[in-house]
Write a structure and sequence with these properties.
The protein is α/β, with parallel strands linked by helices. It is 31% helix and 11% strand. It contains 23 helices and 21 strands. The relative contact order is 0.14. Helix 8 packs parallel to helix 9. It is globular, with a radius of gyration of 25 Å. Strands 12-17-16-15-13-14 form a six-stranded mixed beta sheet, sandwiched between helices. A five-stranded parallel beta sheet has the order 4-3-2-1-11. The protein has two domains: 264 residues, Rossmann fold (3-Layer(aba) Sandwich), CATH 3.40.50; 362 residues, Glycoside hydrolase, family 3, N-terminal domain (TIM Barrel). The chain starts with a helix and ends in a 21-residue tail after the last helix. The longest helix is centred in the middle third of the chain and has 18 residues. Bound molecules: alpha-D-glucopyranose. The site of alpha-D-glucopyranose has 7 residues, from loops. Alpha-D-glucopyranose binds next to loops.
Length: 714
């Protein structure tokens, strides 16, 4: 029996209801209840899709407070132009010292992916806190009439993932499969506790992309391809992060506004050509939830929107006044501030990384200018003086930033004086992360009752991802790309192999990545842990010409399954990847197939369910269901070679359970399809893809693109 959509909707409506299907024993929700929030902020439900014809007015949980407004006005009135423009400037910690923060009245700093105090990947919580204090003290030592504290932003997008030793939760694509907003609130709260313990007050999360095309390198940052679930999750995540702006809370960021997951061919930073109705009701859904929950910041998207149907080309979001101001602020009522993305202003026509009056006039309130912040301040000051940027726009931007900082309670307490500061235990929430892993797993196939495994079985474990925490955690993990890491970089993590040994007894488990030369006869079962190597953003894009066939990029994963299939033992495949991919040949070679997404540091969450381990309330069972469709052809978004076939193998809502009787027959493998366009079409499509996303944008990092991402690799 697999779950149909109406059933998961019912589950979501009754957030604590048994959403676990036929659990062997008692209520699944209870079985997955470790660290469930004691008191939910809302009775979460997944709303119905909307059909707005214009941007809707959304009431924030933080209504405007006249006393706060008066205080903001008084502070802004006391500020010089230099202090105002400094307040709108966000610099990277590698390029600015505390002394410069004081001298230039800087309002914010960030650490980008792969940036740590002193450039030390293993920086301690004390190192983070000391630097946070240094920046705070500098901001409070200016000669301004009213000292405005700095705010530090960080990409804590699946736990406090930049910090050595932190628990890393499953990435959003796995959390979407859990269909559990209550879990999401708990993860938001746990992430906020961890971030605040390092002295940082702002998380650039949640990503609210409603990703439509799995070619996108950021698909794993998207909860779902369906707006309503993203809307419910946005409200839950923002509520968990911001709470009531206490010492254990951080400011949330709804990102990337708008349409980051809507681009043609899933091109990162590309161009969306969706209708106005879809942009509002599908891609806007997350912002309805985030604004209702009182999100205090929104990050503008790198992507563009050309509303072809209506004949309106809005261009790059960072300069789209109709959206940043007209839609988000004026119509939807967002009263926080809008921050631009990393050097995103440099992608606008006529702009550079250090100069872009168009972006500020469009509604960007804080500019993420990681390196060129000095020139930005000088240019923007001149542009105000020359009248290119009205002073009223500057005052509005600064007012928004200061109102958010006042709401956050940043005035008056140093980072290290706040409750929980420096508490290294706040970086860990292994039980909650383990629960999240359990709830995120989706069982796609289970022929011959290959699952559950039984403790004591002789198990051969194969596959490159079985003993790899870097593969489990994916991108945005200590480093930006999630590369250049080893298991030792995640000292509290547990690989799926280690978890199998713990669950089954180390003596019963043998590991061979390739299974080469292994006699399969003595084993009762084979567990193959395969999938994608880590990536982030553009580097994860699959070009329009390439197929979505996983083994086209990772032939070793097909080879190892072909090797173990010869043993005629039950083969359980665990697929660790940032997106659904075309894997029919791998499915045909597996008796059971589990989509594990990017589960994070807690590998035991996988084995809890593989073994249907005992829990306080019965035995664990699969409960995850797909939150986006699963490809059934190599080119689901293009007709090449398989135009007549249904593009999708499994629809959203699909997910198997124990102890149902499941039998999936042999699936088509389209051996002749190795490209999703003819050679000529491919070159044109790929050249367009590469030009789309880097139109005017200096490539952010200089490292060469991986083969599947390069035109010359065709
Ligand atoms: C990146 C991402 C954004 C992130 C920012 C800061 O380019 O687009 O999600 O928050 O830069 O690291």
């Amino acid at each position: 029996m697999f779950r149909t959509r109406w059933l998961w909707l019912m589950c979501a409506v009754l957030a604590t209801a048994d959403c676990g299907g036929a659990v062997l024993g008692a209520d699944a929700a209870a079985a997955n209840s470790a660290h469930a929030p004691t008191k939910l902020s809302f009775r979460y439900r997944v709303p119905q899709p909307t059909h707005y014809t214009d941007w809707p007015a959304i009431r924030s949980r933080f209504s405007t407070d006249p006393a706060l407004t008066a205080r903001v006005r008084k502070i802004v009135a006391s500020m010089s132009l230099a202090q105002k423009i400094g307040q709108m400037t966000q610099a990277e910690i590698k390029s600015i010292t505390p002394a410069q923060v004081r001298k230039y009245y800087i309002g914010s700093v960030l650490n980008g992916g792969g940036s740590w105090p002193g450039g030390n990947k293993h920086a301690s919580i004390g190192d983070w806190l000391a630097l946070a204090d240094a920046y705070y003290d500098a901001s409070m030592a200016t000669d301004a009439a009213v000292k405005v504290p700095i705010i530090w932003g960080t990409d804590a997008v699946h736990g406090d993932n930049n910090v050595f030793g932190a628990t890393l939760f499953p990435h959003n694509i796995g959390l979407g499969a859990a269909h559990d907003p209550a879990l999401i609130e708990a993860i938001g709260a746990a992430t906020a506790r961890a971030v605040r313990a390092t002295g940082i007050e702002w998380a650039f999360a949640p990503t609210l992309a409603v990703a439509q095309n799995a070619r996108w390198g950021r698909t794993y940052e998207s909860f779902s391809s369906e707006g309503p679930l993203v809307r419910a999750y946005a409200r839950a995540y923002v509520t968990g992060l911001q709470g009531s702006f206490g010492d254990h809370n951080v400011m949330a960021t709804a990102k990337h506004f708008i349409g980051d997951g809507a681009t043609d061919h899933g091109i990162d930073q590309g161009n969306a050509t969706v209708s106005r109705a879809d942009m509002i009701n599908v891609h806007g859904a997350g912002y309805f939830g985030a604004i209702a929950a009182g999100a205090q910041s929104v990050m503008a998207s790198y992507s563009s929107w050309d509303d072809v149907a209506d004949g309106v080309d809005y261009g790059k979001m960072s300069g789209a006044r109709a959206l940043l101001t007209g839609a988000l602020k004026d119509k939807m009522g967002f009263d926080g501030f809008v921050v631009s993305d990393w050097n995103a202003i440099g992608q606008l026509p006529g702009c550079t990384n250090a100069s872009c009056p168009q972006a500020i006039n469009a509604g960007i309130d804080m500019v993420m200018v990681p390196d060129d912040w000095k020139a930005f301040i000088a240019n923007t000051t001149r542009q105000v003086r020359d009248g290119e940027i009205p002073l009223a726009r500057i005052d509005d931007a600064v007012s928004r930033i200061i109102r958010a900082k006042l709401r956050m309670g940043l005035f008056g307490t140093r980072p290290s004086q706040r409750a929980g500061a420096g508490d290294a235990s706040a970086l860990q929430d292994r039980a909650l992360a383990r629960r999240a892993v359990r709830e995120s797993l989706v069982l796609l196939k289970n022929n011959r009752q290959a699952l559950p495994l039984k403790a004591g079985m002789k198990i051969l474990v194969v596959g490159k991802s079985a003993d790899s925490l870097p593969d489990q955690v994916g991108g945005w993990s200590l480093t930006w790309q999630g590369t250049d890491n080893t298991n030792a970089d995640f000292p509290h993590g547990e690989t799926i192999l280690a978890a199998l040994r713990a669950a089954d007894g180390a003596a019963n488990v043998t590991y061979s990545a390739t299974a080469q030369g292994i006699d399969l006869a003595p084993f009762d079962a084979i567990v193959a842990v395969i999938g994608e190597a880590p990536y982030a953003e553009t580097r994860g894009d699959i070009l329009p010409s390439a197929t979505l066939r996983h083994s086209d990029r990772y032939p070793e994963d097909l080879a190892v399954l072909q090797t173990v299939a010869k043993g005629h033992k039950p083969v359980v495949t665990v697929f660790v990847a940032g997106r659904p991919l075309y894997v029919n040949r791998l499915l045909n070679l597996s008796d059971a197939f589990v989509a594990a997404w990017l589960p994070g540091t807690e590998g035991a969450g996988v084995t809890d369910v593989l073994f249907a381990a005992k829990s306080a309330a019965g035995r664990y069972n699969f409960r995850g269901t797909l939150a986006r469709p699963w490809p059934g052809v190599p080119c689901p978004d293009a007709g090449a070679g398989n135009a007549k076939a249904r593009p999708w193998l499994f629809a959203p809502g699909y997910g198997l359970r124990y102890p149902g009787q499941h039998a999936i027959g042999t699936l088509p493998t389209y051996p002749a399809v190795h490209a999703c366009a003819s050679a000529a079409q491919a070159t044109a499509a790929d050249a367009n893809a590469l030009s789309e996303r880097s139109a005017g944008a200096p490539v952010r990092r200089s490292r060469p693109l991986p083969a599947h991402n390069r035109l010359d690799a065709l």
